[in-house]
């Protein structure tokens, strides 16, 4: 139901855009966003957007560098990543919740997409 794409290899300081398309259902009353997972670590929240109002929220580690946006017509959310650092290297997962709960909170995510690998070289 969530199809993520856009990962790849980029040099430090570069940019990359991830896309996540929802199919089969909409999350018009909920949130869509991104998490990431480093090797051997738990998945951590990155950014999300409240679909109805367009309100965005971010992890402190990516504020000012990453921008999340949505395309209502395509039922797609984007994560524009700029000023990338090697420590941003991770598998990025698209996520969505229909209940209006902040995605960063426990129980906020109803659906996970597959991961897409982002590698930032130094």
Describe the structure in brief.
This protein is mainly β.
Describe, in plain words, how this protein is organized in 3D:
By secondary structure, this protein is mainly beta. The model has no long low-confidence stretch (mean pLDDT 94). The strands form two sheets. It has a six-stranded mixed beta sheet, with no helix packed on it. A four-stranded antiparallel beta sheet has the order 1-3-8-7, with no helix packed on it. A hairpin with a 4-residue loop joins β5 and β6. It has no helices and ten strands. The chain starts with a strand and ends with a strand. It has strands at 2-5, 8-11, 16-22, 31-37, 44-50, 55-58, 66-71, 76-81, 90-97, 111-121.
């Amino acid at each position: 139901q969530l199809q993520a794409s856009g990962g790849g290899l980029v040099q430090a300081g570069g940019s990359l855009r991830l896309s996540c398309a929802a199919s089969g259902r909409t999350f018009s009353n909920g949130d869509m966003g991104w998490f990431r997972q480093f090797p051997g670590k738990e998945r951590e929240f990155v950014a999300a957007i409240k679909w109805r109002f367009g309100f965005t929220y971010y992890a402190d580690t990516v504020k000012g560098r990453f921008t999340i946006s949505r395309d209502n017509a395509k039922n797609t959310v984007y994560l524009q990543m700029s000023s990338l650092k090697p420590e941003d290297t991770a598998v990025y997962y698209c996520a969505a919740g229909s209940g209006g709960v902040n995605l960063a909170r426990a129980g906020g995510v109803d659906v996970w997409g597959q991961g897409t690998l982002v590698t930032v070289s130094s």
